Amino acid sequence: MIVLFLACQGDKDPDIETATYHQDIAPIMASNCISCHREGGSGPFSLESYENVKALSGMIEDSVVNRRMPPFHANNSGECQDFSESPWLSDDEVSKISYWAQNDTPEGEYKEISLPSFEEEPFDTTHSVTFAPYEASFATSSDDYRCFIVDPQVEQESYLTGFEVLPSNRAIAHHMILYAPLGEQALQQAYALDAADPGIGYSCYGGPGVDNRMIAPWAPGSDQWFYPTDTGVRMATGQMLILQMHYSNASEETLDSTTVNLNIQETIGTELSTDFYVNSDIEIPPNKNEHVETLKRSVRSFSGLDVPLLVHAIGPHLHKLGISSSAKIIRGNNEECMIDVPHYDFNWQRVYTFEEPIVLQPEDKLEIECVFDSSDIANTTYWGDGTNDEMCLMTVFASPL
Length: 401
Prior knowledge:
Blueprint: H1 2-9, H2 21-32, H3 50-55, H4 57-65, H5 91-102, E1 127-129, E2 134-135, E3 143-150, E4 158-166, E5 173-181, H6 184-196, E6 202-203, E7 212-218, E8 224-226, E9 231-235, E10 241-248, E11 255-256, E12 259-265, E13 270-278, E14 283-284, E15 291-298, H7 299-303, E16 309-317, E17 322-331, E18 334-341, E19 352-360, E20 365-372, E21 381-382, E22 393-400
Parallel strand pairs: 9-13
Antiparallel strand pairs: 1-12, 2-11, 3-6, 3-10, 4-8, 4-9, 4-12, 5-7, 5-10, 13-22, 14-21, 15-20, 16-19, 16-22, 17-18, 17-20
Helix pairs in contact: 1-5, 2-5, 4-5
């Protein structure tokens, strides 16, 4: 497969066969990898030196050729929308890494590389949430999903415009999601889950286990995330939140207490809503390498609004059987790709922000496709929150026009 890949890509850049570490590979690492893979970064190893990259060259090649790394899995080649803040590698960059790894990893002549600054501007914190130190458990799995009920102390209805995530143990902090329970009943259900689970918080693989709207997603690479200018997500008076942490077994030190700083404003120009486009009627038979589930609905039916929507960001969500996900817009006889995630990875769930927001009319149709691999599963799998259940949905951040 790699040979064919190189044959197809090799004629795009005549310098591929002369690629060296200092001239070609180091700049790619600096721009796309070192933000995580550096001393003090969130990655489990450093890619800041020739020796380290050479030693890991086989793994790096496999990861970039199969698009597992960098962990931005939406196709950002220009064939299906353009997404902001993307570490997506071009085909030429992937080809260079692959050829270099297969051909003795030449070092080349030393050249000083200008590294981007990894220091972020001081965050304007108005509210903050955290939880008491938690000892992540990897006794039965290499991943630990834990939910903590937190109080940002919102005194009046207002809007979340940005957030900053500061894990105390970056080595194991894999991602964070803030959820707002939908109503008092959902909040009480979360309290019940917390009370029934020994220790701090409660286990929450796949989600918080109660009706919710997702308001803040984070994955390592940047501590800060902001909604589009003059927009925000509504926070009700007295709003309680559920903070989900995903920990990976990447360090012997397993204690963490993550702080999430919030910027909450009383007024904004446009309220963002979080809509879930859900295909809950899924039935995945066992022993299938590739089972496809699709759903097509009008924008009006899933948004509940009879006005156009301006879509700012979108994110797919499946569980561990999910291998790919996509969405397309159908306008009459025309179809437009909205997002394509050909290699879905449950461990790297993201919300992808469009470079240019997309306008959806109420009568437009949105079709989502989820593909699952149940080849190692003995029984039929249905929709659900549990470890052995599945999901097929898109989270859509939008504002009415």
